[in-house]
Structures are given as C-alpha cells and as structure tokens.
Amino acid sequence: MGVLCGTLLAALVLIESASAGAECASLGGGCDDSNGGWDPMAKLDEIGNVTATQQSAGTNWAKKSREIRWGMNSSQGAEDEKGEENESAVAPDSVPQAEAEEAKDVQIAAPLKLKELQINMTRSLKAREMLLSLDGVDDADILLDVSENSSLHIEGSIYIPYMEFFLQPGILKPADEVASILGEAGISREDSVVIYGECLPCGGGPSVATYVYWMMKSLGHEKAKVLDGTAEDWATAGGATSGSAEVLPRKEYIPLVNSNYTATFDLVKSGQVQIIDARTPPEFAMGTIPGSISMPYESVLADKKITGEDRLDMVFMVLNKNQPVVVFTNTGMKGSVVWFALEMMGYDARLYSYQDWMANQQPDLREVDGSGGLNETAI
C-alpha cells in the first residue's frame, strides 16, 4: 500500500514543488518581491529555466495574454510594477507615449489599489470551508505551523517546517514518506488540521500554507484548512502564543491519493483548459506556455493575505467559470496561492509547474536523476 501510494503520488503530484528553504539559501536569503519588482536572484518559487521560450511560430503569447488579461495594447512592453524595464524581457514596440502610459496604468492598477480600497473581507461559506478565521479555531483542530525557522507558535500548535516534505529542490518526498512525517507529528488523515505559516526570508505571504494544503488535499485529507492569518496576527488579537511547539502522540497516516488537484502535461497541451501563468509579468514575457493568461500571484493578495471575494471576482473576471483552470509557476509553490483562491471561489482548478512543461520540451531533462526524482512519468 505504501509503495503503491508513493509511486502514484510521485507520478501525480510531487514534482511541482520547491524546497523554499534550499531555494532561499541558494539565493543568499533574499526572496522578497512583495512590491512586485523583479530580481532574478530573489525568487522563492522560480527555479526553472525561464530564459527558454516556447512561443509558437508567428504568435507572441506574451503580447496576446497582455491584451486578454490587462486590456493592454499588444505593443506595450513588459515592465515590472515599479516601472523599471527588465533588460531580459520582451522589448516593447514603438507606441505613442500617452498610450503607453495609459496601458502601464492598467497593468499596475490591481496591486496599487489593494491598499487604497477598503476591501470587503467577509467570507462566503465555501471560502470559510477552506480559509478559517482566527476566531474559528476550536479545540478539535490540530494547528500545524509550517513556517521556516519559526520561533513563535500559536499555543498548542505542532511544528513541521515545510522543507521537511521535500526530497530535494523541486521534488516532494514519496507519499508514504510524507504520510510518515505527518503521522510522527500526531496527524491522521481523519483529523481536522488548520495550516498556517510563512517563509519570512522569502517575503512572507501564505504560499507555504496553501502549498501544504494542496499537498494534503492530494493525499486525500478532507478536513484541512488554511488559517486566515499568522501567529503574529493571533498574538495581536490576544491569542496565546508559545516559543515551543506541542508534541502529540504518533498516529498512522494512510494516504488516499487524489489526482484531481494536479494537471498533467497532456491536459495542459490539450487546449481544453484555461491556463494561468502566476509568475511576474517580466518572467511571463520571457517565455510562457502558449495560450497562458498572465495573472501574477500577488493579484489575489492584500497585505500578504488572500484578498476579499469581491476583489477576487474582479481578478478572475476574464475566466470562464464553467471551464477547468490550470495555474502554474516555475515549481508551483507561489502558484498554489492563486490555485487556492480559485478553489475558494468555486472554480475547477489544478496546479502545474513550468518546470514540468520545460522537461517535456527537452527530452534530456526527463532522464531519471538517480534519486527517484524528475523523470518522464513524474508530474
């Protein structure tokens, strides 16, 4: 059973992740792009080959997506949210200055207005089933802190740094090993688990919590939620915190692999799904999956939390709710934030990785790496 589940999950869900601890270490600890700017040496989630381009002949998909997503003139070049040109991005065509400025305003309006608007953070019933308010935690819940190097926990929490789930950068451990980690920490698949945590050296935000949520749902964990806040938010609200984590008795965690949360290469190339590129606009401009819509992961955040549903309706208005959606970033870590928001809003969404797309474009990258990692069947 364990071997079978391990093989299935490795084949279904385990390639599109990143050990952000290893990534941040390799990046010198700087991963904060919270202002929307782009620094190629400062990315938690983007370890794939973003310089290779897969544009179909005769089609500039970056320009095409800018027209669809941002209402931009197709000749507008990619700039980051600070207005600084990215030297490696697609060069803009010549357009009148006023027209270019107007197009740029459209592109940056979403992140700029997040702090200007009083966003309605009231959550629907569907949203509350996934994203739990601070006052919604009860004694039956197991609080799971997945932060990196956390020294402040909500009192009673157990602690598993999210890096523990990874075999190596970009590859999660097999299902039976992940299940063993959860079981050793005192979690069974039947428990109600509330996940919270941040990668502070990488700029914060809920990506590690939403990714672990996605991982657990892929293991068949039904009663999993993400906490709508951090340990610091909990303390600010008057909740008790502790410098040490809880230690629970060991349990048996039996995974039941569910492939409905993960996209495959064949599905992505089928033309039957809407594809969201949740990386930064400059990365999108350098190369993307043909037909993708540029929707940076920060579009669904306000002050590093999942934004209100009124706002999400605006962000997702370009999508057809009756058609499946695939979200990707280079490894899927930050893409999980957009995937989570889509699921919360009732979309049929799946998570994918640009890393897998690239591997399927370059057969030499699909060879087994000697550790049971990247291979032809892994996704």
UniProtKB/TrEMBL annotation:
Span list, region Disordered: 73-100
Domain Rhodanese: 137-243, 269-366
Keyword vocabulary terms for this entry: Repeat
Keyword Transport carried by entry: no
Any coiled-coil regions, as ranges: none
Cross-referenced InterPro entries: Rhodanese-like_dom, Rhodanese-like_dom_sf, Thiosulfate_sulfurtransferase
Gene3D superfamilies the record matches: Rhodanese-like domain (3.40.250.10)
Alphabetical list of PANTHER family matching this protein: THIOSULFATE SULFURTRANSFERASE
Protein's name according to its UniProt entry: Rhodanese domain-containing protein
Protein species of origin: Methanothrix soehngenii (strain ATCC 5969 / DSM 3671 / JCM 10134 / NBRC 103675 / OCM 69 / GP-6) (Methanosaeta concilii)
Native organism taxonomy: Archaea, Methanobacteriati, Methanobacteriota, Stenosarchaea group, Methanomicrobia
